[in-house]
Amino acid sequence: MEPTEEQRAARDVFASGRDLALIAGAGTGKTSTLILMGAVTRKSGLYIAFNRSIADDARRRFDGNVDCRTAHSLAFSAVGHAYRDRVNASTRIPAKETARLLDIPRDLEIDSRRITRGHQARLVMGMVRRFCTTSDRQVMARHMERINGLSPAAQGFLSRALLPYAEKAWEDICSRDGSLRFEHDHYMKMWALTEPVLPADFVLLDEAQDTNPVLEEVFLAQPAQRVCVGDPAQQIYGWRNARDVMTGFPAEHLHLTQSFRFGPRIAEVANRWLHHADSDMRLTGCGPTDSRVGPAANADAVLCRGNADAMGEVLRFLDDGVPVALTGGGASLQRIATAAQELKSGGRTSHPELFLFTSWDDVQEYVEHDTAGQDLKAIVKLVDTYGSETIIRAVDRLSDERSAKVTVSTAHKAKGREWASIRIGKGFSAPSVDDDGVQRPLRADEARLIYVAVTRAQRHLDPAGITWVEDYEKATAPTGADGTVAGQPMITMSLTRQLRYAVSPVSRFMAEHLPNSSAVVRDYLRRIEALPHPIQPIDVQYPNWSALGHAIDYRLRLSLGSPLGVAVQHGITALGSPTPLRGAPAPAVRTTLHAAGQDLLERVNTALAHPGLFDEESLARLCFVAAFYEDVYRTGTVRRFNLLTDATPGTTLADLLTAVPAYAVEDITRQTQLAEEPFAAFRALPRRARTCGPEFTGSTDIGGADADFILDGLLLDCKATVHPRRLGREEVYQLAGYLLLDYDDHHGIDHVGLYLSRQAALITWSVNDFLSRLGTTKPLPALRQRLRHHLTH
C-alpha cells in the first residue's frame, strides 16, 4: 500500500535523526510505519517487541539493518546467559523448601490469622517478583502484595517482617550458585541495573503505552535515536505496574489516525470512547465500508470486563450446545472454584488469594463488608451463582479456538487481536451516583478498556454491554457546561482543583493563551534524565505520600525561618469549630485535637524563635502531624487514614508526636539533609527576599491559590514525588497560574521552577523562556490583565 501522509511525516522526522513519539490508533498500521522508517536508512537499528511472536513476525518484515528482539532476549544475551543452568534447572520449589532455604523460622499469628512458613515464603518470592518489574533499586516492604483478610496495619507489620527475607532471596538469586527458583524476570532486572547501552544507532520501542518500568528506564537512558510507538488510549495494564512511556516522552509527537481495520461506523464508536478516555486523538475509519454497529445474533467473539463475566457467557453457550473457546483457557477460574470447594468442605486452601480464610462463609463476609475485597466480589458471586462443580466441568468442556463457533474473552486478553464481528458482553458497568445523587465520572482507565474492546471489530460491532453510555452522557452533560461541578461553581474552586477540569475557567484560559504545556514538559523531562534515583521509604508497605509531601514542605519553610502556613491553622480551627466535618470524631475529641493543634503551633513558634532548640527528629514529627491538620482543611473531612482518627478525649500533642511512624521521621530527615546544599543560597537571602506560602492578588478571584516559595524572585514549587517523570500538564499550569495571578507584580517574579525534594534537584526557567515555551507572544502584564478580566467576567 502507498504510505499515508501521516506515515510519510513520521518517516521524515525519523530520517532527520530526531527522537519521535508515534501515537498510533487501533488498526492504523504502526508496524508498517516502523518498517518504512527502518528502510529509509542504512544505520543499525533495534526494534523491541512486546513478545517473541511479534518479534519473529517483525524480523521477517524488516530489512537486515534492524535487529528485532524482545527485552528479555536482550537481557539474556547480556546477563542471563551466565545463569543459563539456573534458568534451565528452575523447576518449581515447594513453599516449605523455599522457607527452609530462607531460614524462615516459624508460623506467624497476625490479626488472629495464622500465616504458615510456606505462605511467608510465597509472599517473599512475590516481593522479589514485583521488585523485578519496577524501576526501584532495591527490594522494599511495599513490594509485598495486598493480602485479602488482613487489616492495613497487619499488612504493614507483615511486610516489614518479611523484608529481610526478601533481601536475602534477591541476594541468593543474584548468585550463580544460588538455590532458589530463578525466573526470566530476574535476569531482566539484573540487566537493567547495569544501565546498559544498547548496540544500535536507533531504537524502536513498540507497545510503548504499556511498558514494563524496567524496560522504560533502559529505553529512556539510551544515547541513540529513540522512537516509541503505541496508543496511550490503549494503556490497560497499569494495574500490573506497566507505564505509558509516550505521553511525556521529550520528543516530537505525531499521530496515525487512519484505521484500516474498520469503517466509519465503528470509528464513530471508537471516537466516543476516546473522548471519555481523555484522549485528543480521533480515528477515521478507512477499512470495510460496510462495517456496521447494531445487534449481532452470532458474533465471532464476545468480549467481557472480567473472568467472572466471561465464564457466565461460556456457561450460557455450553447450555445452548454452542462450541465455545475461552481466550487463555479457564485454568485460573478452575483454581478459584477448587479453592472454594476446599473451603466449603471445612479445609484450608493454598490459593494465593484465599489462603488466609478458614471457610467459604469467611470469604463471603469479607467481600460483602470489607472494601478491600471488592476485586473478589465478582468471582465469589460467580461461584455462589453456578457452583464450583459447574465451573470446573465447564472449563473441561471448552473447545479449542480453531474448532469453536464463538470465542469468549476478557478485554485485556483480546488486546492485539481482531474478529470480523464482536459483541460487547457484561461487566462494563456505568459509574454509580454519589450520596447526593450526582453521577460520578467515568474513570479514564475504564474508558480505555472499552475503547480497546470496541476496536477489535472489523465489520460488525454489537455494543450490547455498553448501551448505558447514552444515559451516562445525558447525566454528565451539565458537568462543567454551566460552570459548575456537582452544583459547586467552578470559579470557587482552587487553582489546582480547577486544573483537573478542561472546561474550568482557569483551564480554558490556559488552553487559549498558553497552549503548549507539552513543550515545557518535554524540556523538564530532558533535564531530569541524568538525575539519581529518588530517595524513598524502604521498610513500609503503604507510605502516606501526601503527608510526607506536605511535611517536607513545612520542614523547608522552617529551615527558611518561616511558619507552617495558614492551611494548618485553618485545619486546627475547623476541628475546634461546630462546623460539620465528614468523618469527624465526637465533639469531645474534636476539642482535644484543637487543643493539640494549638500546642503544635506554639511549639513551632518556639522552634523558630530559638533555632537549634529542637533536634531534627522532633521537627520532623511536628511537620508530619501538621500535615494531617492541613488535610482536614483541604478535603473538608477527617479521612480514614488520617493520623488524627485514632484520637481519644485524652489525646495530647505528645501522643500524636509519638504516633508518627519511624519511616516518616527517617524520610523527612533524609529529604532535609538532601536540601542542605540547594537551599543554602536561599537561607542566606535577607528575610524580605524569602516568602513561604505566598498568596496572590488574584487568589481571591478563585477559590484560593497559594504557592510553596518565592525566593528572590524565584517562584518555586516543591514536589516530593518518587516518580518525577509523571509530572506534567497540571504542574506546569500550576506554576503559570501562580505567576499570572500576581496581577500587580507584587512579588517581582522573574523565574519559575520545581524543586524535586527526593533528588535535591532544582529545575528552573526564566519567566520569558517559560512563557515562550508555553506558546504565547504576549508580554506578562498583558496576560495578567487578560486573566483578571477572564476570571472577573
What key attributes describe this structure?
Rossmann fold; 793 residues; six-stranded parallel beta sheet; 44% helix; alpha/beta
What do these coordinates show?
The protein is of the alpha/beta class and 793 residues long. It has four domains: 5-79 and 194-256, Rossmann fold (3-Layer(aba) Sandwich); 84-188, no CATH class; 478-539 and 663-793, no CATH class; 541-660, no CATH class. The chain contains 32 helices and 23 strands. A six-stranded parallel β-sheet has the order 3-2-6-7-1-8. A six-stranded parallel β-sheet has the order 11-16-15-12-14-13, sandwiched between helices. A five-stranded mixed β-sheet has the order 19-20-21-22-23. A hairpin with a 2-residue loop joins strand 20 and strand 21. The radius of gyration is 28 Å and the shape is globular. The model has no long low-confidence stretch (mean pLDDT 91).
